[in-house]
User: Which sequence fits this backbone?
């Protein structure tokens, strides 16, 4: 379980408070007006944004002092999720060993993850030589291999077209269900939240609210969300 | 973040300590040795005056003469223009001693110019003394100044010229409203850069200067050290030199950069107005004269040297081998210092840490100051002959550091911004991060920096002369010896070899960084 215990983030006049919990295995959307702090919230959980006060706990353990790579989570950013000078197989292999020292069984796992995401034929290509959707699949394959229990998705598929994005979200949900991962997914599109996430965290007015059922939240949005949705 | 920053800060801290060992520690040794000595005498003040005066003249003439050349290159388009601009980059890498040899071939006692003057029955001129020193500095720095000022011209958005034309402005108004403000912004920087280089001039003043009336501080330190073996005086002069450099670097740092000409869309079509026949003639003259001035000395060296390369004595080849090894070692050390500092500076962006200032420290000390200081520190440990090459490696690495740092910094910033968080989130740290991320992504600037460092070290005639052991001479020192012995044909041959090795090293490293990224 992820717990944000009275967390406060302060950055150059920007403030965000969060006091919430997300149960293990939940698929949660994070929505709210742009600039409200959705990415900042994920950045704080991942260890890129300093936390002014409060604790971040995973299964009761305070992870606030750990380096980003040592936290029990994987994060996908809006872009630059792959190294352009490494092949897809190497990028995926980084999920097993950050120095790419891979054993024979590691290589077999990489091949399996590439097959699972439909990339077997492209293993030797570099990111610049494949499509945006295929880049997204490679990032998901790495997520699969890292086997971290918490995934933070900061709109990694925002640049894809609607059909491709839906396909990615379905693939992501499928892999998350297989591995029992807990997923926090930033989105500015309520349709994504409805499709993917039974629950939603609303970030607005300097606060990240505890997760609420997505359908109910969208059907009867509080004023800040209603303004954002244009209702 | 803590662990990753730890590895990097450790490496950057080690590099900073290394820079301190190569700059501040020798400086402290010099200051300590110079302490308690009598105040500088009239001869020392004369040296200081000459050092300042030649640097002022060199900087003023270089920057001033560069204006018509840059203006001509900015408003003319002709076949070979790109080649000339590329060529302007070469003197930056050219070994100073080769340039001096070429200038002597053209302007020296038996040079082409005096041959022409005496054929016309005119009095001959001497290339030695203040005139020769300034001539050589203009030769070496005119290209740099031209490139800096040309940048300024090209940075004026073409829309400004279009607007000026639409308002009916003539050449005088364009000069007043567009070109004069640009020059006012660009010239102080160019002038200061050249002034700084000339303050620490050694090889030029060693060959073309000399005597109490034409000795720079660097040469005076060398003479006190090598001929009088008066370490106290050498240290006192070194302290004077260090104070001068420090003052100049501080002024250069303070010189606030003025606002540029503002943004434009740089639409094609409108550009610096070409003007009429009169301006065309002036521009042709400026480009022609500058090109001839820069090419003639080099051509003279190549023509007289090329046939002599094969017959060079074994001592020259041995010196070439030593120089290559020394240059490669200095290159490795320079990069080992520059890379961690650049990465740490990129990472600390906005938090105002002093990594950049540390990388600039070598500008505040001159090679002779560092050389004298290191000798004072190490002389108890090993004989001078053994120290010669290691000290030369260390000094050359330190002198290349500011250039390597500046070449690496933009790419290091981009690397941190684009992939720093991804690498952190995957737990990539230490050597794995260096191998999988940093080295592949920074290949180009690393290759370029290595090329600059290797070329500087290969062509440098500086601190190695302090130790001046014939069995441990570098190629530039060997070339200087041949000139001193009036073996001009062998000297020209060695100069061609040196030029080829220097430019070749730069080309190989720079090329290596570009090949298939």
Assistant:
């Amino acid at each position: 379980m992820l717990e944000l215990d009275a967390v406060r983030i302060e950055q150059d006049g920007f403030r965000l408070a969060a006091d919430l919990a997300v149960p293990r295995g939940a698929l949660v959307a994070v929505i709210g007006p742009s600039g409200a702090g959705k990415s900042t919230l994920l950045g704080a959980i991942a260890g890129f944004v300093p936390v002014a006060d409060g604790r971040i706990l995973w299964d009761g353990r305070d992870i606030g002092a750990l380096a980003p790579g040592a936290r029990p989570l994987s994060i996908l950013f809006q872009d630059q999720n792959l190294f352009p000078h490494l092949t897809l197989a190497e990028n995926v292999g980084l999920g097993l060993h950050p120095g790419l020292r891979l054993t024979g069984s590691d290589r077999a796992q990489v091949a399996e993850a590439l097959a699972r995401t439909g990339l077997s034929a492209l293993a030797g290509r570099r990111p610049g030589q494949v499509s945006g959707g295929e880049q997204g699949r490679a990032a998901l394959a790495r997520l699969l291999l890292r086997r971290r229990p918490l995934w933070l998705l900061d709109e990694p598929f925002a640049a894809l077209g609607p059909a491709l994005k839906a396909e990615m979200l379905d693939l992501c949900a499928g892999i998350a269900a297989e591995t029992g991962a807990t997923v926090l997914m930033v989105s500015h599109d309520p349709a994504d939240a409805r499709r993917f996430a039974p629950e939603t965290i609303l970030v607005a007015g300097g606060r990240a609210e505890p997760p609420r059922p997505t359908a109910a939240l969208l059907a009867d949005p509080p004023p800040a969300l209603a303004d954002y949705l244009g209702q | 973040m803590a662990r990753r920053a730890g590895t990097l800060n450790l490496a950057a801290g080690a590099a900073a300590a290394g820079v301190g060992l190569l700059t501040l520690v020798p400086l402290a040794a010099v200051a300590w040795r110079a302490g308690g000595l009598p105040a500088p005498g009239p001869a020392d003040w004369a040296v200081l005056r000459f050092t300042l005066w030649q640097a002022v003249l060199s900087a003023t003439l270089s920057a001033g003469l560069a204006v018509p050349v840059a203006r001509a290159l900015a408003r003319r388009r002709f076949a070979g223009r790109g080649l000339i601009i590329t060529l302007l980059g070469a003197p930056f890498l050219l070994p100073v001693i080769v340039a001096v040899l070429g200038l002597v071939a053209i302007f020296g006692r038996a040079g082409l110019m005096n041959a022409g003057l005496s054929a016309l029955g005119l009095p001959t001129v001497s290339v030695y003394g203040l005139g020769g020193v300034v001539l050589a500095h203009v030769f070496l720095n005119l290209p740099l100044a031209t490139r800096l000022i040309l940048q300024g011209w090209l940075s004026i958005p073409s829309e400004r010229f279009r607007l000026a034309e639409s308002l009916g402005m003539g050449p005088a108004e364009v000069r007043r409203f567009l070109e004069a403000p640009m020059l006012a912004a660009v010239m102080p920087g160019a002038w200061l850069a050249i002034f700084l280089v000339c303050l620490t001039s050694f090889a030029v003043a060693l060959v073309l200067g000399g005597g109490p009336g034409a000795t720079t501080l660097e040469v005076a330190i060398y003479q006190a050290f090598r001929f009088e073996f008066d370490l106290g005086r050498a240290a006192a002069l070194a302290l004077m030199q260090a104070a001068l450099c420090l003052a100049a670097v501080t002024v250069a740092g303070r010189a606030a950069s003025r606002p540029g000409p503002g943004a434009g869309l740089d639409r094609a079509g409108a550009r610096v107005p070409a003007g009429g026949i009169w301006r065309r003639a002036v521009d042709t003259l400026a480009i022609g004269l500058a090109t001839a001035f820069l090419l003639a000395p080099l051509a003279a060296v190549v023509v007289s040297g090329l046939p002599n390369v094969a017959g060079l004595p074994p001592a020259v080849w041995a010196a070439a081998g030593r120089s290559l090894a020394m240059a490669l070692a200095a290159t490795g050390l320079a990069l080992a210092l520059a890379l961690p500092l650049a990465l740490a500076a990129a990472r600390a962006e906005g938090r105002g840490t002093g990594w950049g200032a540390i990388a600039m420290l070598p500008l505040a000390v001159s090679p002779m100051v560092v050389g004298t200081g290191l000798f004072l520190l190490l002389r108890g440990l090993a004989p001078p002959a053994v120290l010669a090459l290691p000290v030369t490696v260390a000094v050359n690495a330190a002198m290349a550091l500011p250039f390597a740092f500046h070449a690496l910094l933009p790419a290091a910033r981009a690397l941190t911004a684009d992939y720093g968080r991804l690498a952190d989130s995957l737990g990539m740290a230490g050597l794995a991060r260096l191998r999988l991320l940093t080295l592949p992504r920074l290949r180009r600037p690393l290759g370029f920096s290595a090329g600059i460092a290797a070329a500087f070290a290969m062509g440098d005639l500086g601190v190695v002369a302090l130790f001046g052991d014939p069995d441990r001479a570098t190629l530039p020192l060997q070339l200087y010896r041949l000139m001193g012995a009036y073996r001009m044909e062998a000297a020209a041959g060695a100069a061609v070899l040196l030029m080829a090795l220097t430019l070749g090293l730069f080309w190989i490293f720079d090329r290596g960084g570009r090949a298939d990224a």
The domain at 1-72+154-231 of chain A is CATH 3.40.50.300 (Rossmann fold). The radius of gyration of chain A is 18 Å. Chain A touches chain B at residues 46-48, 65, 67-70, 74-75, 77, 80-81, 83, 85-86, 94-95, 98-100, 146 (CB under 8 Å). The longest strand of chain A covers residues 2-11.
